[in-house]
Amino acid sequence: MAVCDDMVPLVLGAAEGTLDEAARARLDAHVARCAGCRDALAGQVFVRAALGELAFAPVSPGFAARVRQRVEPRSWWLTIVNWRAWTLRLAPVAALLCLLAWWPRGDETTTRMPLTSVVHSWAAGAESHSTLLFDPDADSSALVSAALGESSR
Amino acid sequence: MPDLDPDLDLLPAAIDGDVDAFEAIVRRYQGRIVSLARTLTGAPDDAEDVAQEVFVRVYRSLGTFRRESTFRTWLYRVAVNVSRSHRARRQRQAPVWRDSGAGDETTFDPPDATDIEGGLVARDAIERALGALPEELRVAVTLRDVHGLEYRDIATTTGVPIGTVESRIFRARQRLRVALAAMNVA
User: Fold this and answer.
1) Looking at beta carbons, which residues of chain B come within 8 Å of A46?
2) Residue B101: what pLDDT?
């Protein structure tokens, strides 16, 4: 059944309970002789009441805490525990300390070996050790010495 | 600016970064926002995740809250937008839910007579009927009849004139009545 267009605001207002007395009287007089508007009014009132009775869905107990966890700034000690963050930041400091350890100081009497010589010497030693490790005829004590990096010279 | 915002007891502290105050706001609205997400997304299993996203976005945007509406209206606007986006994303991924257009026929399986005595069935039927409405009708009637928002707040939340809100609510109720009658609920 169709509702009369000019009655729609009144039907809606009646369902909301916002009509003044004059408007309500006008609607009542109309619905007494119009089945379409009477039916529409009953439908509006019924659906409004049915939806109004819907309770809000239950929320799981930890919901608010989970939201809090997502918005709360991380505490300072959690930042410290995160070693990846601070070890990376300390890398330049570590490099600087290595450089200082190697750099010759003015009061030193001994002559420091140049860095390139140190590297070459280590590489040569490593090569002889690794050769021994793959030698099928090497005895066990020689293998242990090679594995520990002891010089066979 | 609204003269009486019922959340003024907590809002200033929350805006200043007080997480305790914000958590109290979450507790105040969690039931409403989870329910709204459940209705608007049509995905009960996702409702809490969507609601959580709503609150996180609100918290991050608290500094931009202009107080041109109440906090509740602003919260609902965010909730409607997030729920719409979620529903659209779900429809793209798996088109299970489908809005019925103006001329669409929607069919329902009536529940067993013995089940109708249970309120859960009525709730399920109402949610199914709501889910079958076109989105703009579903949003308007849900905000009005389930959540009790005023017409002007629904207009602010959805960004349409009050006259459009009234028209949508009227049409939504008419269609819901037909749908609920088909499910033996009306």
Assistant:
1) 177, 186
2) 46
For residue B107, what pLDDT is reported?
47
**B182 at A interface, C-beta within 8 A:** no
Measured CA to CA in angstroms, residue A44 lies from A25, A38, A135, B181 at distances of 18, 10, 95, 13
CA–CA separation, B5 and B66 (whole Å): 13
> Would an 8 Å CB–CB cutoff place B81 in contact with chain A?
no
Q: Is the pTM of this model over 0.80?
A: no
Task: Look up residue A84 and give its two tokens.
Answer: 């990846």
Cβ contact, residue pair B31, A50, below 8 Å: no
Nearest CB partner across the interface for B23, out of A40, A54, A64 = A64
User: What does the domain layout of chain A look like in residue ranges?
Assistant: 5-53, 115-147
DSSP B68: S
Enter the DSSP assignment of A62.
Answer: T
Burial of B28 (0-12, 13-18, 19+ CB in 10 A): middle
DSSP codes, B132-151: TS-HHHHHHHIIIIIT---H
Q: Does B43 touch chain A (CB under 8 A)?
A: no
Q: How far is B166 from chain A (nearest CA, A)?
A: 8
Predicted complex: ipTM over 0.85: no
Residues of chain B with pLDDT under 70: 1-3, 94-121, 186
Does residue B160 sit in helix, strand or coil? coil
Provide the shortest C-alpha distance from residue B94 to chain A (in Å).
Answer: 25
Q: Could B52 and A60 be called an inter-chain contact, meaning their C-beta atoms sit closer than 8 Å?
A: no
**For position A86, what pLDDT does the model report?**
67
Q: What is the 8-class DSSP label of residue A142?
A: H
Question: Inter-chain contact A67–B174, Cβ cutoff 8 Å?
Answer: no
